[in-house]
Amino acid sequence: MLFDNFAAAEAALLWGAFAIALVMGLVVNKTNFCTMGAVSDLVNMGDTGRMRAWLFAIAVAVLGVAVLEFLGLVDVTGTFPPYRAGNLIWAENILGGLMFGIGMTLASGCGNKCLIRIGGGNLKSVVVFAIIALIAYFMLSPFPGSDQTLMSLLFYDWIRPLSVNLGSSQDLGYLLGGESAVTVRLGIGLVLCLALTAYAFRSVDFRGSRDNILGGLVVGLAVVGAWYLSSNIQVESFDGNVSLSTYYNQWDMLADSEAGKPAQGRPLAPQSYTFINPMAQALGYAAGGFERSLLNFGVMAVFGVVLGSLLWALISRSFRIEWFSSLHDALNHVIGAVLMGFGGTLAMGCTVGQAITGVSTLALGSFLTFGAIFLGSALTMKVQYYKMVYEDEATLGKAMVTGLVDLRLLPERFRRLEAV
Q: What are residue 3's DSSP bridge partners?
């Protein structure tokens, strides 16, 4: 996709991101594709339908990226965020993933689900969105009149030194194949896709559920589509055809004036869907008076998902205004939003941004985050269940240990509460 000027090229990126997100938002609402719901169904009822849909989405995304990268049609190395960075921030992936998993359970859904619910009329999710956006914004941006962020104040000094340098890249293709990374990535992508797809379709119930199949397929294709879109937009210049990010970095040489220059260059790099940092970007866009230079891929993705969900809610007549049922309900959502804001930023993504988009790059950190999110969410559900059943007898410690036993992460002899 070649354009003769930067403005037209950037517009194609923004409207393309919006259009794909619109379709994703509509389909996710229609099919009830929900990652927190997938964990809940599995842990509480033994129902694997939505979990298989999530894994099918990963399979589609992984295969799509592997094939397109092998053909030279996408760039998922110098991305925003930098999934394949050689510095593995494993502690941030795990801690952030755990926090996010706990948070999305308390707040009744992940970042993507929050946007879907806003489109469906849920005012609780507006509150969750605002809290996530505010925390994520100041995790990455300095406080007014200061050079300090929440990240630098609370985390950076003690957690970043724990990172491990893996060389040029942390993706499995590079770690296992070195110079043959592209070919190895294709092999891993094919094997992983076949394994996940076989698992998903082994279930008769899944094969019979058009919604689960459609939800997984569309979300996976949306992630691949965004990678393709953001990797292939170029601008004509006297120095040849250049990417948007290259044009931004050479703005003084290539552009006639500062008019039309985005506020930041990093959001012009190849990327796909994630929803925690974009919430912060949307807040920055609004706080900046809707300045055109602050409009980027992430902001358009947020708008697209919300509008797509709203369209389906109106078509299906399912639009409903919802508010907190009690003070306890409100407190749970607030705490959950705070944890998602911190956790999603620390882990560099959410159940879509890391567990689908990040995993599609085969980045090791993305797999760690995926596992931590699942564990955080599943354990929180176990704790909630035992505290509901046993009330005062179930202290937090007893419920947590028993939950770990149920999840087969501790031996049966550690059980503190009888299984129900």
A: 235
Tell whether the torsion through CA atoms of 234, 1, 190 and 184 is positive or negative: negative
Residue 313 is encoded by which pair of tokens? 């809610």
Question: Quick one: tokens of 324?
Answer: 């907190």
Model's pTM, two decimal places? 0.96
* Strand pairing category for 234-237 and 240-243: antiparallel
**Nearest C-alpha neighbor of 20 from the set 229, 179, 199, 192:** 229
In a domain, 409, yes or no: yes
* CB under 8 A, 24+ apart: contacts of 389-398: 389/420, 390/417, 393/417
Tell me how far apart the terminal alpha carbons of the chain are, to the nearest angstrom: 58
Q: pLDDT tens-digit profile of 158-180?
A: 999 999 999 999 999 999 998 89
Going by their DSSP bridges, the two strands 234-237 and 2-3 should be labelled as parallel
d(CA 194, CA 176): 19
Structural domains in the chain (count): 1
**How far apart, in whole angstroms, are the C-alpha atoms of residue 99 and residue 87?**
21
Asked if the structure places residue 419 within a domain, the reply is no
Q: For residue 308, give its domain range.
A: 2-252+263-414
